[in-house]
Amino acid sequence: MKAKSIDEAKSIAKSQSLETKFKDEAVYIVYCNKTEYFYVDTNSLLRNWE
């Protein structure tokens, strides 16, 4: 999921971390300088290669 602001990304990460399918997984917020978006994902390296 992507968000334009850090506050929006934090709220997405919080709601995603409360879901049962992500119970034992870490949720990462990654910032991309190229697109200027914050990405919320369970795999932190996924967005670094785009």
Supply the number of structural domains.
1
Number of helices: 1
Main sheet attributes: strand count, strand direction, barrel closure:
3 strands, antiparallel
The total strand number stands at: 3
Q: In percent, how helical is the residue content? A: 10-25%
- The Rg value, from CA coordinates, equals 11 Å
Q: What structural class do the secondary elements suggest? A: alpha+beta
Order of helices and strands: EHEE
- Strand proportion, as a percent range, falls in 15-25%
Average pLDDT level: 84
Query: How would you sum up the global shape?
Result: flat
- Uncertain runs: none
Organism: Flavobacterium notoginsengisoli
Protein name: DNA-binding protein
Task: Write structural notes for this entry.
This is DNA-binding protein. It comes from Flavobacterium notoginsengisoli. It is a single chain. This protein has one helix at 6-17, and strands at 2-3, 28-32, 37-41. With 50 residues, it is α+β, with helices and mostly antiparallel strands. It has one domain. The chain has a 3-stranded antiparallel β-sheet, with helices on one face. A hairpin with a 4-residue loop joins strand 2 and strand 3 (37-41). The mean pLDDT is 84.
